[in-house]
Amino acid sequence: MYGHNGNEYVEAQWAAWKLRAVPVNVNYRYVEGELRYLFDNADVVALVHEATFADRIAAVRADCPTLVSCIAFDDGSGADLTVCGAEDYESVLAASSPERGFEERSNDDLYVLYTGGTTGMPKGVMWRHEDFFHATINPMLSVLATPITSEGEVAERAATGFPQVGLPLAPLMHGAAQWSSIQNALGGNRMVLSASHHMSPEHVWEMVANDGVQVLNLVGDAQGRPLVEALERLGDTLDLSSMFVISSGGAILSPTVKGDINRLLPNVIVIDALGASETGFQGSSSGVDAQGRPKFMFGEHTIVIDDAGIPVTPGDGTIGRLARRGNIPLGYYKDEAKTAETFPTINGQRWVVPGDMATVDPDGSITLLGRGSVCINTGGEKVFPEEVELVLKGHPDVFDVVVVGVPDERWGERVTAVVAPRGDARPSAESLAAFCEGQIAGYKAPRAVVHVSELVRSPSGKADYRWAKAVAKGEIPAP
């Protein structure tokens, strides 16, 4: 699956599952070398793609012997499909046979989601369909409706019409939007998609008003902040009364943006949803701590473990790793070493431990700190970038920010803020540190700042820490 959001993406993905093929998500930002790697690693046999990518596919197809079929859907680009040997999507549909040509589907059929993660090359997370449904889709359905209790109820629910109208904003090539689209389908909901290649916040609110969107799924401040600022500009020109839930998955919303949403849309519930490609949907936020970090209440399937694999004692302040058991993936496709590392067997129980760091409060609630792979070690203290970013995003001169560590002779690493300022502002490291005072410990405050015109993020809005670190170290120029 190689394209932006659109009906064809959803149609082809469901068709692949129904005929027992395994759809694989391709990042539409990939250049030729990354495409060669992914097509080879995933053993790609067929591509359903936007016509505009024909030239890029043609450049790599000779190096991908498993790739035997390309089907292109029209995107108005007028691209020459003959360069990559692609067939036209609508023509293929019209000529297809209605006869069933595949065996009965099984709960062991695979759902594979390729994830770039924070380090290394993309990895294909392999889920059994049954495990993925119980780990992710049914719990997501349970947030706003009752859970499904039988196989027959799945078809029954999906056929009841569209009691809710959902709009996933993230690209369908990422888990957050894929999961929302599957939830909408199996919940019998109507789903609205934007086919725009770039998010226009004004257009998003127009879609909400025109289509009666009730549930908006977005990814953190990268999408939330522009939407809030557009709301300020639009005022009361649009009827947004249909909205009742805004859910952020893949990245948490800062307290500032949450406050703005509550002020501008007082009848809307704001939810932080936690999940990862390797864990599925784990739960929704039950509140925030004093620093604005989301707190979650989980069932017995999710705990925090120490380095020895022992559950931490609630309230003792130990920083451990978030771990999940039960319905979890089989592992990474064609990567046994990484599978053994991320899916260890501890005390006879198989877990998935993707690298999220957290603490457990006395009441059993879990506070998420961030990914251990981007943790900054300064003077022997651990600093998780996300908790610093949550505070800095409230600074009046900061539009967007990513926090990284750069080498420091004295402290090991120096906390550095890569800031996209508002307008012509140029906040200093001193002003940022002063703003953090009283909100986070002093050693977590930035000691240096690099100003950029725009931060590089994934299409879903996740921070690119490798890029930010290279900018902060001066290895690449700041845009």
Task: Provide keyphrases for this structure.
479 residues; GMP Synthetase, Chain A, domain 3; alpha/beta; globular; Rossmann fold; single chain
Structure write-up:
By secondary structure, this protein is of the alpha/beta class. It folds into three domains: 7-105, no CATH class; 132-302, ANL, N-terminal domain (Rossmann fold, 3-Layer(aba) Sandwich); 375-472, GMP Synthetase, Chain A, domain 3 (2-Layer Sandwich), CATH 3.30.300. The chain is 29% helix and 25% strand. The chain has helices spanning 7-18, 32-41, 54-61, 89-95, 129-144, 151-158, 175-186, 201-211, 220-234, 255-264, 336-342, 385-392, 429-436, 465-472, and strands spanning 46-50, 69-73, 87-88, 110-115, 123-128, 165-168, 190-191, 215-218, 245-249, 269-276, 280-288, 294-296, 302-305, 320-325, 331-332, 345-346, 349-352, 356-360, 366-371, 376-378, 381-383, 398-408, 412-421, 448-451. Strands 6, 7, 8, 9, 10, 11, 12, 13, 14, 16, 17, 18 and 19 form a 13-stranded mixed beta sheet that branches. A three-stranded parallel beta sheet has the order 1-2-3. Strands 4-5-15 form a three-stranded antiparallel beta sheet. A hairpin with a 2-residue loop joins β16 (345-346) and β17. The longest helix has 16 residues, at 129-144. The chain starts with 6 loop residues before the first helix and ends in a 7-residue tail after the last helix. 39% of the residues are buried.
